[in-house]
Amino acid sequence: MASIRGIARTAGRHATAPLRPTATTMMSTISHNFGAARQSSSQSQPPSSSSSSAAPAPTDPVFEDLEFDSSFLTPLLPEDVKMLSPLERSRQRTERLPGSRYQYHPPKFDRGPLHPIQSPESSDPTARDFVPGPYHLNRLRQTYHTTIASDLMTLAYTHTIPGTEKIPTPQRLRSWDGSSPYHKNRPLRQPRGDPKLPLLEKPITFRNIPEIRSVTLAAFVPKAAREPEHLVVARMVTQAITGKVATITTVKHNVGQWGIIKGQKAGVKVTLYGNEAYDFLDKCIHIVFPRIKDWPGVNGSTGDSSGNLAFGLTSENTALFPEVEANYSMYPAKQIPGYRVFVETTAKSDRHARLLLGSFGLPFYGRLRD
């Protein structure tokens, strides 16, 4: 290609080509000028011998642009050109390369701790489970880590005299009588009646300090079966006070007096985790509950014996949230729903869960159930 380019450049000096020559015209012009150049060079040289007349002189100005080396050879780099490593080139690059080809993608599957390719930590922005944030420090959560967590170990401390025998935990499951060979190495059976055994309460140490795991809000709107706009308002209010889009729940059983059928959409539900759960409890404890007239607190008998407590909010209580109160005219007053709030904690008993929520400022009344 370089040789043809040089011949075309030489031919352009002696002949005038059209503005846009075709491939056939260009090749014929090149061959004509090349033949003329060979004839002129042969006439200028003396006829000393047949070999010298056949080979043109390489110093002839007509062939100064021709390249006698093959175009398949790798050209030598100048001395002032330095080969940079990929790391140095990436540091000197001002623009980002396309992510589809050059960006690192963590593996989709975890192939065990001994695999040479490991997924990055969740705090790494390249991780697949990376979530940016938090963008603010939750006051209730910060108080828990700085004050409440250490106080809970003091309040729940149980002193035992050194040398005291440890009371063994009674067996709550039934064993097999061994009347069949299939009873061997089988797990223990549930008690009679198949009850739900509560979790065993363990002393609070620095390893198992109770904390909030999640907060679930559920609203039942039976009128939404006939009037769907009630369900729209319920989702709007739920998203306003929680900041998350609620999912629609369906009816599990037929209720004749309410005129609802199994499978109809008649409720909303949303679950909050992390800072969102602490933000919601913070609003309830410091804004909503103090404004409820003659509110006694949360019933002390609530709980599922496994560290999960619940309380209710009426439609009037829901209207006290600042997000709803600021735009109260946007929601029909008779369509604002009430909620059942379930607070899931890492505690193993209701007593420890009440101790945690009580330290946040949530009052309890009535008989306290262990």
UniProtKB/TrEMBL annotation:
Give me the stretches of Polar residues compositional bias. Answer: 22-32
Record keywords: Ribonucleoprotein, Ribosomal protein
Source taxon at top rank = Eukaryota
Biased amino acid composition, Basic and acidic residues: 88-98
Limits of the Large ribosomal subunit protein uL5 C-terminal domain: 266-364
Sequence ranges of Low complexity compositional bias: 39-57
Q: Belongs to which family?
A: Belongs to the universal ribosomal protein uL5 family.
Write down what this protein is called: 54S ribosomal protein L7, mitochondrial
